Write the structure tokens for this entry.
Amino acid sequence: PAQAQNLRDSIAEAGLDIKVAIGLREESPSWAEAEETGFTKADGTLGEVFDVIADSDMVILLISDAAQAKLYPRVLAAMKPGSTLGLSHGFLLGVMKNDGADFRKDINVVLVAPKGMGPSVRNLYVQGKSVGGSGINCSFAIHQDYTGTAADIAIGWAIAVGAPFAFPTTLESEYKSDIYGERCILLGAVHGMTEALFRRYTRQGMDPEEAFKQSVESITGNISKTISTKGML
């Protein structure tokens, strides 16, 4: 629960009286993980997902794409009027467009999308306490501003989650770039390029084991390590 941990810690350091609670199915394997990080049912910081949604002034929806597509009508129906729906990518907007649905008009809808996975969001936040500038950059968007405070809420969320830099986008741009970058490039193109390289090398007479090293292992090993530590250029 990286974002929940970061938000809880930032709010505590700021001296604010705001409770961060995690909503889960009790049979979820994530329940034990949440308890290990200090969220408990006893103090009201861990509870059944729709109970937490109904009680919250801001709902940050971090469930899987498939779960969002299935459960968004119930999530929206459970939210309080004037509350804020927070998303960390724009996939739900694409789903709702396909369904001919729209967000309730009496809530805010904002996005803060950290450019990294949960463990990195947490680890770099912790590192940032001693190393200036650490943290995961993020994009943010204001899709619907019912209360007139949606921008403040989004920027506050970005700061609290530990982003040293946040840049504006839109919900639509976010989900389209996600589909292209993650679905097309990471899940399609990278696989296709490594397979094409492997086939090319073996056709040219290279031993299959060496061809594997020169194609798959060079991308998952040396190339990705170089990009992670030194960037693309």
